[in-house]
Amino acid sequence: MENRQPQSATLLIYCEDRSGIIAAVTDFIHAHEGNIIYLDQYVDAEEKIFFMRIEWDLQTFVISPDKIETLFKEGLAKKYKMNYRLSFSDEKLRMAVFVSKLPHCLYDIVSRCQSGEWAIDIPLIISNHKELEPVAKSFGIDYHYIPITPENKPEQEAKQVELLKKNNVDFIVLARYMQILSESFIKNYPSQIINIHHSFLPAFPGAKPYHSAHKRGVKIIGATSHYVTADLDEGPIIEQDVVRVTHVDSIKDLIRKGRDLEKIVLSRAVYAHFQRKTLVYKNRTIVFN
Amino acid sequence: MENRQPQSATLLIYCEDRSGIIAAVTDFIHAHEGNIIYLDQYVDAEEKIFFMRIEWDLQTFVISPDKIETLFKEGLAKKYKMNYRLSFSDEKLRMAVFVSKLPHCLYDIVSRCQSGEWAIDIPLIISNHKELEPVAKSFGIDYHYIPITPENKPEQEAKQVELLKKNNVDFIVLARYMQILSESFIKNYPSQIINIHHSFLPAFPGAKPYHSAHKRGVKIIGATSHYVTADLDEGPIIEQDVVRVTHVDSIKDLIRKGRDLEKIVLSRAVYAHFQRKTLVYKNRTIVFN
Amino acid sequence: MENRQPQSATLLIYCEDRSGIIAAVTDFIHAHEGNIIYLDQYVDAEEKIFFMRIEWDLQTFVISPDKIETLFKEGLAKKYKMNYRLSFSDEKLRMAVFVSKLPHCLYDIVSRCQSGEWAIDIPLIISNHKELEPVAKSFGIDYHYIPITPENKPEQEAKQVELLKKNNVDFIVLARYMQILSESFIKNYPSQIINIHHSFLPAFPGAKPYHSAHKRGVKIIGATSHYVTADLDEGPIIEQDVVRVTHVDSIKDLIRKGRDLEKIVLSRAVYAHFQRKTLVYKNRTIVFN
Amino acid sequence: MENRQPQSATLLIYCEDRSGIIAAVTDFIHAHEGNIIYLDQYVDAEEKIFFMRIEWDLQTFVISPDKIETLFKEGLAKKYKMNYRLSFSDEKLRMAVFVSKLPHCLYDIVSRCQSGEWAIDIPLIISNHKELEPVAKSFGIDYHYIPITPENKPEQEAKQVELLKKNNVDFIVLARYMQILSESFIKNYPSQIINIHHSFLPAFPGAKPYHSAHKRGVKIIGATSHYVTADLDEGPIIEQDVVRVTHVDSIKDLIRKGRDLEKIVLSRAVYAHFQRKTLVYKNRTIVFN
Q1: B115 touches chain C (CB under 8 A)
Q2: CATH of domain C94-287
Q3: Given A233, A241, A253, A260, which residue is catalytic?
Q4: What ipTM does the predicted assembly reach?
Q5: For an engineered disulfide with D181, which of A135, B47, D185, D214 has Cβ 3.0 to 4.6 Å away?
Q6: Residues B16-67: pLDDT tens digits?
Q7: Diameter of chain C by CA atoms?
């Protein structure tokens, strides 16, 4: 950290709500000559929990980046029993993408990284199928084919975790990965695995949601991006969106319309995540503006 | 019918799909000097069912309105084993509105009728509560207070049906009516009872959907208008719409935002219904443009 | 104010951005035992202007409501050269509605007030036509018919202002009022007159926007609610929304679909206004959550 | 055409509206044992023009594909003075993409083609800049760098047309191509050049629409895809969509949110075009379902 000169620092905080927290945090920054660039806070009135995201300019801040955490912890976090996450603008997160056979979300994600739209790294793609290896190749990303069967699942997941650790992966995106992750796998990355489900959850969880939507005769279909927990399709929702359909639309049409929805919804969720705009509390996601 | 001179006639048709139906129907109108104003048709490729809505100008049509049905039935409907509904532009449908305590959908519906936006009559409002009687009064509509308990439900529903029949009601709108209709009641008005449910079905059926939506942490809430069948919240969907919410929105906010959604979605469904733009087949609603 | 015991106070503030404002304001409330219920702030980085909305519980607040303003002004507003507006939760705003012949927005607004959905008073409705007098009557609201011609405009507007002042009107809603207000009239109610324009501004300003939209072949139509300024259809936008249309939709269809849009968009804007969630700066409206 | 066995044929038709056209066209298909898969028609009541899209299965059709056009022309098109376009399901259109420096629309389009989502060919990409050549390379598509200056525009456009002709290009997509095409260029591809404009037209035509939108303080931004005509940003609109923004969004945020909108709106327009679902009449686009 010695020679780093990040432009700004961001704190994500939550703790029991008490009077004076905002004043205390803004005072902390103000007192050390920091300039607040972004502040958003929210109180869950039922749970009595305070949530905050604050970002400040480090140009004139008198504490050096490597000392901010210690000072903040001793000065404030302890007093208010805060859960917090400190990050700096020059940290580039490392993301692994898991895929099966469908390429649309993968293309969308990797092209955003390759074009520089997103400032994150993709050290590797992991798949239980070989189909998308050419896509990974054309973007110059390592592709690991790790087929999963009910029998080999534990050792294959162990192999996946090893690869992820070796590559210093910060978070994982399941870009239409058609495998259920085991609870023990998930524990390695709490609130760091993002899935896209091709329905408007909690409607149509599980397999073949477009078929179910067609059968039910809905007039709108949706897609849902959420953090993965041990309960399938039950994790905290990050983002959802919908598109109109009519009686004319066949299942094939729903799949086609849904494809665009899936990739946009997943990408919005990934963006919010790597911009450190999300905070998970119980089964809900706070998504700051 | 003798002195009537409706401007146009509308046929809603469905039957097993066969080659030549469109040609046969359009020929029928063309051969008798009718001018087609509207034609929309749709084939359910899986079920192999043909659906059509056709409207034509009667000014130059050489068959008089009171003879159209006989000729159509003998000439075409029998041959193709069609289910059909013939209506004329001068027929004004009669609608009953059922309410409990929440007024927003009621206000929206009656003001559309009173202002002439909708060409339908509301001969009566039925409620299991007294609260909305002043609203009915201010619009000059009969209000019938028929309280329902588990014990008196059969006789009270009988009283409702009697009133509906006496008033020649064509269809019923449940404008946030908080009672479940019995199967025997529903049988009197198949595909003629429209409900508004305050969620994006099939998500959150049953009671308190906004509470459930808040608990689940969804990022979008919805409302669904559907025909009432014996299966609660399972009838054929006519219209749905949604609105964005965030972690900031409390249950009270969801209720407030949902209120606007409910009234718009219900009114769109009622409009499609009385314009004879809907056809129910199995559990799906064909909604023509 | 002596016997009043409002539940909460709200401050809307804007001033030149300086370090430490948030800390100063939250300290002010905190130091006097107030509990912050709502805080949202925003910095216009280009203009270097700080905007804030803060609401706090008065139950434990040690300053009595009638002394808050003086203390705030002396203690903070002067120091930071703040523009501010203080309000209390028990203040009920008084709204005048201006209409011409179209009733849909009027019905929507008055039914929200009559049902208690909105805690505001409507002491009077003003119109340049007689058509909607029966609507006003059925809701028990005074209706003033003040026809406008190019010749009598100045004295008729003077009459309007007199009525508004006599009725202690706080703000005015133009619910499809088809008259242009003069600059001198507008000066009486700066940022207190809300209009609904039936297009997605800045597209199709002026007369007959649905006709223009149809001619241009747009695939989406919109409605815009804005504060009225001397420049027609150029005032700060509060809320907009849109609905899809297709080549099939005639001008009549656009008008019908637009009607629902107009009433919802106008009502959202009015709600934001009377909830003191809006702040106008130059030609933009800050709309707090 | 000799050995071709396309699955289906599609006719896009428009002509002066007359009684009996639908019957005549469906009779034509029916009489030759064709099975209608899709039929949509629309009458512009003001212009008195009839529009139709009809697709039928060729499996049992007794006329061979290469003779359909002659028979249709002699039998029907002449009688009704139809403008029509006949196409077959096995025809793969050839599309050229024009780009400048922004890659998001290009990535979206080429990945849809490479993955097989779209059954069209991209023989070449043309650009006035070198920046996106690596993207073209990674997808294996020819990239032609043709810089444009006011001086060299005529000869450079001539070079472009030559390339397009040599590559048998059917239609052109301007994927954020920052050059205005000359009238003489456009004449080569009437209703065959699709542009994406980054605003909700007719709001904010011309350069820097996000800056203008920010300045005007709109609450919704949009994107518009249209056929290119000699009048800049005035061509027939194919598709539009919008996304909400707030006072918090900077110009940079509008650009980011707009990017996703642009690529989705452009791709929907391209899809409708190559599926032969569009018909241009005067300045409006009929987009069949």
Answers
A1: yes
A2: 3.40.50.170
A3: A233
A4: 0.94
A5: D185
A6: 998 789 889 988 998 999 988 888 999 998 899 999 999 999 999 999 999 9
A7: 64
Q: Are A16 and A49 in contact (CB under 8 A)?
A: yes
D62 lies within 8 A of chain C by CB:
no
The closest alpha carbon to D139, from D176, D119, D114, D173, belongs to: D114
Q: Is D239 in CB contact (< 8 Å) with chain C?
A: yes
Cβ-Cβ contacts under 8 Å between A and C: the total is: 40
Residue B107: what are its φ and ψ, rounded to 5°? -55, -45
B8-88 under CATH 3.30.70.260, yes or no: yes
Tally Cβ neighbours within 10 Å of residue A88: 17
Locus of tokens 């009519």: A246
Residues contacting residue A68 through CB under 8 Å, at least 6 positions apart: A9, A86
Report the DSSP beta bridge partners of residue A148: none
Whether the upstream peptide bond of residue D147 has omega within 30° of 0, thus cis, is no
Mean pLDDT on D206-222: 96
pLDDT tens sequence across A247-263: 999 999 999 999 999 99
On chain A, the residues whose CB falls within 8 A of the CB of D287 are none
Q: For residue B9, give both structure tokens.
A: 């006639």
Instruction: State how far residue A111 is from chain D, nearest Cα, in angstroms.
Output: 7
C contact test, residue of D220, D238, D280 with most C CBs within 10 A: D220
Q: Give chains near A: 3+ CB pairs under 8 A.
A: B, C, D
List the beta bridge partners of residue A13: A52, A84
The 3-state DSSP class for residue D91 equals coil
A259–chain D Cβ distance below 8 A for any pair: yes
Q: What are the boundaries of each domain within chain C?
A: 8-88, 94-287
pLDDT-derived band at A3 (thresholds 50, 70, 90) equals low
Percent of chain C, pLDDT > 70? 99
pLDDT, one tens digit per residue, over C83-134 is 999 999 999 999 999 999 999 999 999 999 999 999 999 999 999 999 999 9
Indicate the pairing of strand A171-174 with strand A193-197: parallel
Least Cα distance to A209 among A224, A218, A217, A198 occurs for: A198
CB pairs under 8 A between C and D: 77
Tokens of C7: 């539940």
